[in-house]
Amino acid sequence: DAEITQSPRHKITETGRQVTLACHQTWNHNNMFWYRQDLGHGLRLIHYSYGVQDTNKGEVSDGYSVSRSNTEDLPLTLESAASSQTSVYFCASSETGIGNTIYFGEGSWLTVV
Amino acid sequence: AQKITQTQPGMFVQEKEAVTLDCTYDTSDPSYGLFWYKQPSSGEMIFLIYQGSYDQQNATEGRYSLNFQKARKSANLVISASQLGDSAMYFCAMTQGGQNFVFGPGTRLSVLP
Q1: What is the pLDDT of residues B72-109, one digit of tens each?
Q2: Which residues contact B111 (CB under 8 A, 6 or more apart)?
Q3: Given CB atoms, is B64 within the 8 Å cutoff of chain A?
Q4: How confident is the model at residue A65 (pLDDT cuts 50, 70, 90)?
Q5: Residues of A with CB below 8 A from B44's CB?
Q6: Contact between chains at B95 and A102 (C-beta distance less than 8 A)
Q7: Exposed, middle or buried, A1 (CB in 10 Å: 0-12/13-18/19+)?
Q8: Alpha-carbon distance B45 to B55, whole Å?
Q9: Is B33 on the interface with A (CB under 8 A)?
Q10: How far is B71 from chain A (nearest CA, A)?
Q11: Which of A21, A33, A14 is CA-nearest to residue A80?
Q12: Among candidates A99, A102, A92, A75, which has minimal Cα distance to A4?
């Protein structure tokens, strides 16, 4: 079965360190997204990609970067982790088209101390 | 710009009763899709139901139905015969073309025995 996997699922890191969260999907979807979820804010879009070599900033992109070198992967990098980036991160993918839903990974719990 | 509003931060319902979760949306595009997702305490995002803007009939999926009122820009989720396992966060979302997904802040549903 096609799926979308995130790693690591849980991570504790120190302020100032670089952190990369991996996302791999086997749906062969063109569109991939990174969201963060915080209490009271729902899901907020960090970065998204509509295809290989395409990346775009979402509403909360400061301090984050992504790259899309193939269809399957969209790693999210925190350049210099801050305590404000403690959150649950969700990777998701979708296919272009009005009736297509978005599929989520299981989430990555990141704590910055 | 697209926007999703869910005005009920929390809802309670008695087991076996029906419950309606409110969702209103704002878009100027005539073509869009509306979704509901469930997030149980384990954290995963589960797709429940989809409604297209041009669909003439309200969507139904088992115990879930979507009360789509296009003129009022509302897409309320109705859960019939609530079960204890329905206790979760519920998110309303909208997309245009399967690419730009916007989520509401969510409603926490608690089903009482």
Answers
A1: 999 999 999 999 999 999 999 998 877 778 999 999 99
A2: B12, B13, B14, B15, B82, B83, B84, B85, B86, B87
A3: no
A4: very high
A5: 104, 106-107
A6: yes
A7: exposed
A8: 24
A9: yes
A10: 20
A11: A14
A12: A92
Q: How far is B89 from chain A (nearest CA, A)?
A: 10
Q: What angle do CA A40, B64, B72 make, to 5 degrees?
A: 70
Residue B107 near residue B8 (C-beta atoms within 8 A): yes
A28: tokens are 């062969």
Spatial separation of the C-alpha atoms in residues B37 and B59, rounded to whole Å: 14
> Average model confidence (pLDDT) for chain A?
94
Cα–Cα distance for residue pair A76/B60, rounded to 1 Å: 36
Give the gap in angstroms from C-alpha A4 to the nearest C-alpha of chain B.
12
Q: Distance between CA B39 and CA B90 in Å, rounded?
A: 6
Q: What is the pLDDT of residue B111?
A: 97
- The reported pLDDT for the residue numbered B2 is 82
Instruction: Kindly indicate the confidence band of residue B23, based on its pLDDT and cuts at 50, 70 and 90.
Output: very high
Which residue in the set A42, A43, A97 is minimally distant from B98, CB to CB?
A97
